[in-house]
Design brief:
Blueprint (H helix, E strand, L loop, with lengths): L28 H4 L7 E3 L14 E3 L11 H14 L2 H23 L2 H9 L10 H21 L1 H7 L4 H4 L4 H21 L4 H18 L9 H26 L8 H23 L2 H6 L5 H5 L1 H18 L5 H21 L4 H22 L3
Antiparallel strand pairs: 1-2
GO molecular function, one term: transferase activity, transferring alkyl or aryl (other than methyl) groups
InterPro entries: UbiA_prenyltransferase, UbiA_sf
Subcellular location: Plastid, Chloroplast membrane
Length: 372
């Protein structure tokens, strides 16, 4: 019998009786009995760990096999060692891996669900012309996310242990450098767009709001009232910023339209519910570190029903003939997800899934606006 694996043994012996008739414990017969003629073979690869090698000494129980190591296995291993040992191969692999890992870490750092929502607003037919309008918007979102994660590291160890700063994928120093680069990039692009002074002011205000929201001693997020105000201002500001930046990049004047008023009103309500839904999964960590939010005061169950109720009311108030069917479908999906979260006893992981589902509703609404 030939055995070829990471740990290769070779031996030769004759067939013998496998069971010891004097052993009172039949379960241990194979393990306890050693035939007098059976040699104890020691692996020639004693220092090479393998899941197939549980011990270095093996009692051979009636196996008839051949004494040889597979030359093919050795040649394959030697070839792999030469390839892996190549400096050029290691260098290419290392650089490519570092770039991909850093890009993936940045993607996780800027809250992908929020970025998808902002990009989904874009009209893809005008995407290339209006591309630079997205840069300040994404820069503001990225900056606010970095600030929040830098100052919430201890809380996120409980609530979101998979975030880059908590898991160690990115250092705090790197996050600080990245936040400065992102904020300056957004400001430079905002000025280069030659947009209205109001747009520049809104962007600068958004950067300071991102700082005030997370950074002590101000840290508005720990007070329910200021938390509520910053959420409203950020979503209204986002709508103005998006509209102003897009019209500026396309060379169009800023004109107020009824449809724009509708978008601001509806999406501001949705933005508030998103912010409150985010706090549901953070209740445990926020309570431990003394962060007072509406969710910590009401509890997960009451907060979930409040968020769902406001969204359902939003679907009823803002309606048109085209929106009736779409809002009915989205409302049904919301009720189903609320029920699923209740069945999961409002645990942290299902609460995060519920929060991300509300972002899906947010994306869906922008597609409905195409038909207004």
């Amino acid at each position: 019998m030939e055995v070829s694996s990471v740990c290769t043994f070779s031996f030769q012996t004759n067939y013998h009786t496998l069971l010891n008739p004097h052993n009172k414990n039949p379960k241990n017969s194979l393990l306890s009995y050693q035939h007098p003629k059976t040699p104890i073979i020691k692996s020639s690869y004693d220092n090479f760990p393998s899941k197939y090698c549980l011990t270095k000494n093996f009692h051979l129980l009636g196996l008839n096999s051949h004494n040889r190591i597979s030359s093919q296995s050795r040649s394959i291993r030697a070839g792999n060692d030469q390839i892996e040992g190549s400096p050029h191969h290691e260098s290419d692999n290392s650089i490519a891996t570092k770039i991909l890992n850093f890009g993936h870490t940045c993607w996780k750092l800027q809250r992908p669900y929020a970025v998808k929502g902002m990009i989904s607003v874009a009209c893809w037919g005008l995407m290339w012309k209006a591309f630079f309008a997205l840069v300040p918007i994404l820069s503001f979102n990225f900056f606010a996310a970095i600030m929040n994660q830098i100052y919430d590291v201890d809380i996120d160890r409980i609530n979101k242990p998979d975030l880059p700063l908590v898991s160690g994928e990115m250092s705090i120093e790197t996050a600080w450098i990245l936040s400065i680069i992102v904020a300056l990039t957004g400001l430079i692009v905002t000025i280069k767009l030659k947009s209205a002074p109001l747009f520049v002011f809104i962007y600068i205000f958004g950067i300071f709001a991102g700082i005030a929201y997370s950074v002590p001693p101000i840290r508005w997020k720990q007070y329910p009232f200021t938390n509520f105000l910053i959420i409203i201002s950020s979503h209204v500001g986002l709508a103005f910023t998006s509209y102003s930046a897009t019209t500026s990049s396309l060379g169009l004047p800023f004109v107020w339209r009824p449809a724009f008023s509708f978008i601001i009103a509806f999406m501001t309500v949705m933005g508030i519910t998103i912010a409150f839904a985010k706090d549901i999964s953070d209740i445990e960590g926020d309570a431990k570190y003394g962060v007072s939010t509406v969710a910590t005061k009401l509890g997960a169950r009451n907060m979930t029903f409040a968020v769902s109720g406001v969204l359902l009311l939003n679907y009823l108030v803002f309606k048109s003939n085209i929106m009736i069917l779409s809002h009915a479908i989205l409302a049904f999906c919301l009720i189903f997800q609320t029920r699923e979260l209740a069945l999961a006893n409002y645990a942290s992981a299902p609460s995060r899934q519920f929060f991300e589902f509300i972002w899906l509703l947010y994306y869906a609404e922008y597609f409905v606006y195409v038909f207004i």
